[in-house]
Design a protein that fits this description.
It contains seven helices and seven strands. With 204 residues, it is α/β, with parallel strands linked by helices. It has a single domain, classed as Rossmann fold. The longest helix is centred in the C-terminal third of the chain and has 22 residues. It is globular. The N and C termini lie far apart (52 Å). The structure holds S-adenosylmethionine (SAM). S-adenosylmethionine binds next to helix 4 and strand 2.
Length: 204
């Protein structure tokens, strides 16, 4: 199959995808909104938190979902890419590793956060060893962010891709949280290795 055919097949499959259709009707910026909604339906945490950071937030559908919860009064979104502004959300175009910028980003919020979300997906090379190392490096960066800004007993929801580095990453997270659950939302494509790690009870 030629590259053009492969691309047009992907475009057709994507536009026929139920969650893509729903996201257009519901005015979400991407189908990822339904992943966060499904995680929340299962673990029921968004109505219990007040302050949240969303790492890898572009184009911003998780931020839109967070805005629907009136109990949440502080939302920060961070992404390498530019994100169209959302009223009342602090958005920073930066790498999550760019720790120097955080002081400025959080100057309006001295205390720590209740929840850290990460839907970050590093670029996939297709070479399993390299991809798995990249996922584990990102997990370490996310954990560093938690040490910097997550409250003791706070919660982290993080995307991960099952593979050779998964157990090591889960062990590292286990040392830092009281409980780790693994969840795959219905809107996460079946053939993808993507799962979400629901990490409860941060040990500061
Ligand atoms: C799947 S998208 C997130 C979708 C988002 N949850 C939504 O609902 O719209 C993953 C994002 O992670 C971002 N990303 C990847 N590595 C990053 C890093 N080191 N720092 C900040 N953002 C990163 C990418 O730019 C991409 O926009």
């Amino acid at each position: 199959m030629t590259k053009v055919n492969k691309t047009s097949n992907w475009v057709r499959r994507h536009s026929e995808d139920t969650f893509v259709k729903r996201s257009k009707q519901d005015k979400y910026r991407s189908r990822a909104a339904y992943k966060l909604k499904a995680i929340d339906e299962k673990y029921n945490f968004l109505k219990k938190v007040i302050s949240v950071a969303d790492l890898g937030c572009a184009p911003g559908s998780w931020l839109q979902v967070l805005k629907e919860f009136k109990n949440i009064n502080f939302i920060v979104g961070i992404d390498l890419l530019n994100v169209e502004p959302i009223d009342g959300v602090y958005i920073a175009e930066q790498d999550i590793k760019d720790y120097d910028s955080y002081t400025q980003l959080f100057e309006k919020k001295d205390s720590k956060l209740d929840l850290v979300l990460s839907d970050i997906a590093p670029n996939i090379t297709g070479i399993s060893d390299i991809d798995q190392s990249n996922f584990s490096y990102i997990a370490i960066d996310i954990l560093r962010f938690c040490r910097f800004k997550l409250k003791p007993n706070g919660m982290l929801v993080m995307k991960y891709f099952l593979g050779s580095s998964f157990e090591t990453t889960r062990k590292t997270l286990n040392n830092n949280f009281s409980k780790i659950n693994v969840f795959k939302p219905a809107s996460s494509k079946k053939k993808s290795n993507e799962v979400y790690l629901i990490c409860i009870g941060f040990k500061d």
